[in-house]
Structure formats: C-alpha cells, structure tokens
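I am hoping you can look over what I have pasted underneath with an eye to the fold:
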Amino acid sequence: MVSNRSDWRAEHEDILREVGNIGAGHAASALSALLGEEVKISVTSARMCAFNEIADAVGGDEVVAAGIYLRMTGDVHGNMLLMLSLPSAKQLLRRLLPGQQETLEFNELEISALAEVGNILGGSYMNAIGTLTHLTLTQSVPAVAIDMAAAILDIGILSAGEVCDEAILIDTVISQGKFDVQGHFFLLPDPDSLTTLLCALGWCT
C-alpha cells in the first residue's frame, strides 16, 4: 500500500533527485559524445506534480512548445515527455546543428535532432529508475510535436488512454560552454503501474 502522499512528498524528493542526477550523468556523457565537446546536465528540481501543472512548465496551455514523447513498457508502463519552450528548443538546436540556417518552422533535420535528445534523456532517466528499483524497463522510438502545450498533452499523453493525475517532474539544465537550455522531463506511470513504481522506490507502508 502506498503511504499518504502528503507524508512522502517532501521526504522522498531526494530519491527523485537521485534518479535525476544519475540520469543526467548518463545523458551528459551521451550528448558530449554526440557533440564532440563537454556537455553538463544539472537537475534543478525533482518532485511530484499534478497533471494539470505540466503545461504550466512552459508557460501555459496555449504556449507553443516542443514536446518529445516516448512510451515506457516492461515492469512498469507509462509515458515520458520532455517539454521545451520554443526559445529553449531553438537554442539547443543551434548547438546540435551549428551552421544550420534558422527558420520559423522546424525542418526534418531539426525534428530528428530533438528526437535524439529526447531519446537520450528519456533512456538515461529510465535506466536510472531501473538501476535504483531493479525494474526492467524499455522505451519506444521518440515522437516530436511542435504545438500548443495542451495539444501536445492531448496528442501524446491523453490519447494513450487513462492517465494518473500526478507525474514525476525532473527539471534539468543542459549546459554547453556559456549556453544553458532548460528542459522539463515528466514521467507519467499508467494508473495500474503507479503503485508498482512507487513501491519499488520505497514509498509503500
């Protein structure tokens, strides 16, 4: 049985931060190899948040953002979503694709680059959870959407079926030299997988 949320919410933020830090370390190594220069990823916060707070991370339901969506399967099923504001997405692409002519629209190469970042971050955080919980987890091929935040949730999350009313949020900053990009990574376990995940993290009575 999962303990009362109000009791463990603050108490176990250090566990979520550990997940974030382990995942960020692996993701930084992978991005550094991809770019050929050092990349640092830091976790600024890690917590549980309400589902309706997801769009708020990038400024609200009607703000256009970049969303990279992955499906998690295995011992736990759920959705993973990396949300980036458009300025953050463009800044990241400048570092990933130097010399690429910037336009208002996102071209195929840019979409592919964002998908690879989502793939790296999603896989790194998922592997961190697996390391800490000994759960076996796999991820799908990433899908990218550039749309209003509410539409990204409708397409990528709500269309997958029933969802929990809470998500694990890991706020990250990707740093390369003097350039920083802030991203918001969300893990939303399916309702029938939530207890399995929380208990594996030590949140059961």
Notes: The CA atoms of residues 71 and 197 lie 15 Å apart. The chain has a mean pLDDT of 85.
